[in-house]
Write a structure and sequence with these properties.
Order of helices and strands: HHEEEEEHHHHHHHHHEEEHHHHHH
Largest sheet: 5 strands, mixed
Shape: elongated
Radius of gyration: 29 Å
Number of helices: 17
CATH class of the largest domain: Mainly Alpha
Number of strands: 8
């Protein structure tokens, strides 16, 4: 059996903790073609193995935590000498009795995550794929997951922030960074959750915190007179119908796009949304909405899109953006208004009309907690009205 290699700087925790914190490991060769590395972090460091192979180049893999702060347990926390033996075993392909496969890169983990998401929600999978490909994978796609460090990820997160002196643009960029960070964490946690990947340490991304206090509730919503102006400014009768459907149901754009004629139930006065952010649900319609959908559906075939574009095809992703911007500008409304503002308007008007929050949440496919958080201002105004109108009086005539 080969003798153990010596490395005074790495052999004891005292000497290791004198090393500067750095993302690049300090290596010592243990046998020809195999080196043991120590990566110094702000807390306990970690051991990595680097192997040079003739046919596939060099690969590096994290093998355990170092016994910097805790005693060795022989498995996840190892001494310098134990780490050498683990490195040799990993290089020979028989670590823990298994054969080393293709390195698990962030790119491969992301592809597995997309496949999993697709089975649950194609819209969510599309959004995650788009954001990761554009913002995260160009920098980290070829990295092995176990080689990621907290410092790297925090530097990437901070690099997404606008620093041109505009406070609002800075806030928005921080909010966007938080959204992408949540997708990154979900992707990497998905990889850790698969036992076949044999990943045990998630601290590199778990300890990366999102920016605080940068989320802002969507504040644009339309009153009924404003909505009538918006309908008047619509570029076509087809788009006017789409706007009307959004305002009368509070449904999300993607949910309305998914509806076919068969999903409108005239007898029960409902719209059965086949899929959405929170899954399928039944939307109870008020009389005006029933009459509207009865006109739109007419006697068309059940498999046709319930709402059509001017060319007769169903509405697709992002089709609404340009005509919405044009209509908002023409109607003289807040230019920040998007199609989502129709949902915001529905919920705001329903709260003002004193619809019970549990009924409202169920009809809109959300939670009471989310409504209380997002529509706190509307609820506060109504709360005062309730108290003024209903609280006990002592001296009133």
């Amino acid at each position: 059996m080969p003798r153990s290699a010596r490395a005074p700087k790495l052999e004891t925790r005292t000497n290791r903790l004198k090393l500067p914190v750095a993302g690049k490991p300090v290596f010592v060769r243990v046998i020809p073609g195999v080196s043991l590395g120590y990566r110094r972090t702000a807390t306990a460091g970690s051991w990595v193995v680097r192997v040079a192979e003739r046919d596939s180049g060099t690969w590096t893999k994290r093998i355990a935590m170092a016994d910097d702060l805790s005693e060795s347990d022989g498995e996840t926390i190892l001494t310098f000498w134990e780490a050498q033996e683990r490195a040799k075993a990993a290089a020979q392909g028989d670590e823990a009795g298994t054969k080393r496969g293709i390195p698990l890169t962030v790119q491969r983990a992301a592809e597995a995550y997309w496949t999993s998401l697709e089975a649950r929600s194609s819209r969510t999978a599309y959004d995650a794929r788009l954001r990761l490909k554009r913002i995260f994978l160009p920098r980290f796609g070829e990295s092995r997951i176990e080689d990621l460090t907290r410092r790297q990820l925090e530097a990437w997160r901070d690099g997404l922030v606008r620093t041109d002196g505009d406070a609002e643009r800075r806030r928005r960029s921080q909010d966007t960074a938080n959204r992408v960070l949540s997708i990154v964490k979900a992707c990497l946690n998905h990889a850790v959750g698969d036992p076949a990947n044999r990943l045990t340490d998630d601290s590199a991304w778990r300890l990366v915190r999102p920016f605080q206090g940068v989320a802002r509730a969507r504040e644009v919503h339309f009153t009924v007179p404003e909505m009538l102006r918006l309908l008047e400014a619509a570029s076509s009768p087809a788009f006017r119908d789409l706007l009307t459907a959004g305002f009368l149901t509070g449904a999300r754009y993607g949910e309305l796009c998914a509806c076919e004629v068969r999903h409108f139930d005239l007898a029960r006065e409902t719209l059965n949304v086949p899929r959405g952010k929170t899954g399928p649900r039944t939307v109870i319609l008020q009389p005006e909405a029933v009459a509207f959908f009865a006109r739109v559906a007419g006697t068309r075939a059940k498999g046709e899109p319930l709402l059509k574009r001017p060319d007769g095809e169903g509405w697709k992703q992002s089709d609404q953006q340009r005509p919405m911007k044009e209509a908002v500008a023409k109607a003289g409304l807040d230019l920040e208004g998007t199609f989502y503002a129709l949902r915001h308007s529905y919920i705001s008007r329903a709260i003002e009309a004193e619809m019970p929050l549990t009924v409202l949440a169920e009809n809109c496919g959300t939670s009471v907690r989310m409504i209380e958080k997002t529509y706190a201002k509307v609820l506060a105004d109504k709360r005062r009205e309730f108290i003024v109108r209903s609280a006990p009086r002592l001296f009133a005539a």
